[in-house]
Request: fold
Amino acid sequence: MVKGLVDGKVVVITGAGSGVGRAACLLFAEHGAKIVAADISSEAVEVTAAEVEKAGGEAIAVLCDVVSAESVESLVKAAVAKFGRLDVMYNNAGITTRPGLSFMESSDEDMDKLAAVNIKGVIHGCQSAIRQFDAQGDGGAIVSTASVAGLIGFGGVLYGSSKGAITTLTRTLALEFASKGIRVNAVCPAAMPTNFGGAALKNSELGQKHTAALHPLGRIITPEECAAAALFLASDLASNITGVNLPVDGGMSAGKSLSASR
Ligand SMILES: NC(=O)c1ccc[n+]([C@@H]2O[C@H](COP(=O)([O-])OP(=O)(O)OC[C@H]3O[C@@H](n4cnc5c(N)ncnc54)[C@H](O)[C@@H]3O)[C@@H](O)[C@H]2O)c1
Reply:
């Protein structure tokens, strides 16, 4: 396997205390990145940073609530204070709605909570990163975790709408900052067995079997596979790729096959 894809790069990863964020911290560090792991759970993010260091990598843990612009600005400042610059911002933190919440029962409070983390949180990450990239003057890379639900109709309406906002932001922001050498891309995973949404998928064998069958490749996505796609987009291998929402979905968003092979 190729190593060192992000050698020496300073990478901020939000939602680093669990699931995709944790997997990304470990994978990016394995590829030589200096990791700034951020999460709203200080305990969880400390564990992730310790895991990176134990594996021979370099990491700091930062408590950050992406809902707050000040908190995200402090996060980028912490990265620069520790490692001298910022190369990659990975906006990965995200939440879903209460389990079983129907569209018609959704309250303003439900919508505000979701939008604050999934939309505003990503915008804060982009703004703080671009401010720092501008100060450095040599470009940079932004990756966000959207979802297959931001590409096709899949799962909850509110959640899909929040992720659709990220896929649109990815395209438009990429165009706005291309001339500065700032690349903006997103990964769009299908359902993964993480702590997301009360870990419903993680804790249900039947749910995993049912979900696996929805994917043309026949199995559910792992957080490591999502992190690998983010690593590619963050790395110089993707140096001429911007404005892309990359599905990591076992072919789900490709459409429906007429063949009866599965
Ligand atoms: N798991 C899935 O089925 C799935 C599918 C598609 C997309 N996603 C997306 O993947 C991303 C990662 O989710 P995951 O599956 O690893 O979930 P997870 O719940 O395992 O991890 C999410 C992490 O984000 C942190 N977080 C939540 N709110 C935060 C905030 N305001 N500020 C900072 N950190 C915060 C949590 O503490 C947690 O550590 C999310 O954006 C999610 O929407 C997940």
In short: The CA atoms of residues 70 and 124 lie 9 Å apart. The helical segments are 19-30, 42-54, 69-83, 108-136, 157-177, 196-199, 205-212, 223-234. The chain is about 45% helix and 15% strand.
